[in-house]
Amino acid sequence: MKRKIYLNDMTPDEKLLMAVVKAGEIFKRAVSAVFRDHGLSFPQYNVLRVLDACRDGQVKISDVSRIMLVAGANMTGVAKRLEKSGFIVRKADPSDERVTMLEITPKGRETLKDIEKKRQECDRAMLQGFSEEQKSELMKNVRQLIRNSLQLSLSPPSRDHE
Fold first, then answer.
1. Half-sphere exposure (CA, 13 Å, Cβ side) for 87?
2. What SS3 class is residue 125?
3. Which of the ends of the chain has fewer CB neighbours closer than 10 A, N or C?
4. Res. 161 pLDDT band, cuts 50 70 90
5. What is the pTM assigned to this prediction?
6. Per-residue pLDDT reduced to its tens digit, 38-60
7. What is the secondary structure of 52-89 as a DSSP string?
8. CB-hemisphere CA count at 13 Å for 67?
9. What is the DSSP secondary structure assignment for residue 38, as one 8-state letter?
10. 3-class SS of residue 86
11. 143 sits in which H/E element
């Protein structure tokens, strides 16, 4: 008889939140393998997706950082590696040379197209068994969770421990 070495003392709320995190981590691991086959990390892929969705395929690095919730210093490193690999071009904003613009290259767009089918397969596998209505409801609930999380992260820390 095998003895349990782990006693789960999480509350139902904590179990739910941990399940959401676990699902996200599993998805991230699965799609990261697809991205790696194309020379991209998960954050690099997301930068390309943001740029591809922007008007003219270019945007300020600070806007990408804000959209992705990534610190500016981290975004600079990601952008430099993408540029070195030929996926993007970094350039100064013509109206303000202090501002860095990121622009997706044809190689970046082509790589996104090459990845699309495999990424969609990962999406379908993760959402297998969900009806369109269930997916819509889940999206609504996850958006609420994100809004709540953002409010939590914007709130000043509690002083209960003092």
1. 24
2. helix
3. N
4. very low
5. 0.81
6. 999 999 999 999 999 988 888 99
7. HHSGGGEEEHHHHHHHHT--HHHHHHHHHHHHHTTSEE
8. 15
9. T
10. coil
11. helix 132-154
More confident residue, 65 or 70: 65
**Token pair of 122 as six digits:** 């990962």
The count of residues in the chain is 162
Short-list 36, 62, 58, 34, CA closest to 48: 58
Name the residue among 48, 159, 60 with its Cα closest to residue 114: 48
Q: Which residues, 6 or more positions from 99, have their beta carbon under 8 angstroms from its beta carbon?
A: 60, 61, 62, 92, 93
Q: Which two tokens stand for residue 155?
A: 């709130």
With CA atoms as reference, report the closest residue to 48 among 12, 21, 88, 16. Answer: 88
